[in-house]
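Retro notes, item 3 of 5
We never archived the inputs for the protoporphyrin IX containing FE complex last cycle. Fixing that now. Sequence and ligand:
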Amino acid sequence: MVPWGPVLGALLVVIVGYLCLVGLLRQRRPQEPPLDKGSVPWLGHAMAFRKNMPEFLKQMRAKHGDIFTVQLGGQYFTFVMDPLSFGPILKDVKRKLDFVEYAEKLVLKVFGYQSVPGDHRMIHSASTKHLMGHGLEDLNKTMRDSLSLVILGPAGPRPEASRWHEDGLFHFCYNVLFKAGYLSLFGYTKDTEQDLLRAEELFTQFRKFDRLFPRFVYSLLGPREWLEVGRLQRLFHKTLSVRENLEKDGVSNWIAHMLQFLREQGVAPAMQDKFNFMMLWASQGNTGPTSFWALLFLLKHPEAMQALRKEAAQVLGEAGQSFTFDVSALQRTPVLDSVMEETLRLGAAPTLLRVVHDDHVLTMASGEEYRLRSGDIVALFPYLSVHMDPDIHPEPAAFKYDRFLNPDGSRKVDFYKAGKKIHHYTMPWGSGVSMCPGRFLALSEMKLFVLLMITHFDLELVDPDVPVPPVDPQRWGFGTTQPSHDVRFRYRLRSPE
Ligand code: HEM
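Structure as it came back at the time:
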């Protein structure tokens, strides 16, 4: 009989010893950024980072300045906090900073999708063709019709719709945006009622995955949660399976284009299902939460709601009475654009990551040069270093619906830091090679949703004095943040005037 206790104990000592040694061996080399390994071997600062990412980074910035390297779970991350120094990282003319390497590992783990050569470029070219410009016009109409279908139901407005309904605002927004977005991109069958029921069920499962997602990425799930994640992955692969969805109508050109590429590359159908899951996640994980923050800010700021309703009345005119107004109106809404930009400034908190290939020198805006080490990861967190910088955005924590408007009502694009005009004055979509290719569609669908809600519904918070909830600390760094708890609200369909 093997004495397992001492064997496992010895193994643990060897592993911990090895990890401590690796950590101890790493020393700051000449010209490298300040190195902060933290006090816990291997884990480094992982606990403080996960507990409250912005707070941790603020402390590190106060201690080390605008660039520093920290250890997080055995990996070294170099954070660059000065937005005037972002240019060389995002442009990366020397091609030393790699987005794809990190992303490929992540999507394999999270969605089970194994990348094929050229797919990253293909996603961007399919998106340029179908999620921007002319390609977007048809999709906007589909999205408008899907939103009205989801909000009003297949039979259109019913008498009970003009009675007050109560719901959680976060749940309501996420649910509506998810169902409308999913149906518009992945298509309908001939049975719309069934489609809506299936979309509802899919949303329930999506939220289960969404809740586990941050700890899944950090590999911090308990055994039961691991099993649950596996079950959810299989469920999504099956529900989005290319074989089972052959008979669907109106699969968006975007999805169809990308699947055709994968077929031409000889990618197996089972892997195409996993690709679909990845695209469902990318396309539906942020629009609902962002729309929640937008409606909540509007409900907490009556002056903003009033300005927006005035603009909507002017832009939509008589057509605003109908749910099927002309989507070209979306191009004439500077106030709504400013509301959305301000919402994204406050609500979007992605981390941009690049793996360093070969040692590489980064020149900061100050002229200082820093040597980045091959294998480390360069990280940007624009929420803290751009969105919340009081020099760029005075009173950064406040929601100001007209922050992105000039006095003449046009879009404001001139922002300054230390007296210098700044190019990246908000970065909700990331930037450079990994910039969100769905950003134009995302904006249109969220704008359509907000327009429909404020023009057709009376909306109010159940408790008008309820404070804006804090961000769920788990969500920092993963795109749009989510609230730590929901906010109750009421809505009813307005009767035509
Ligand atoms: C409010 C809504 C959205 C926000 C805030 C958002 C934000 C982002 C960000 C920050 C990234 C870059 C991630 C990185 O650098 O690692 C990204 C990537 C991506 N987004 Fe979005 N997104 C939104 C909606 C959408 C929509 C509606 C679609 C598609 C219909 C979409 C498709 C994608 C795809 C495919 C990628 C991966 C791009 C790549 O691999 O280079 N997103 N998004």
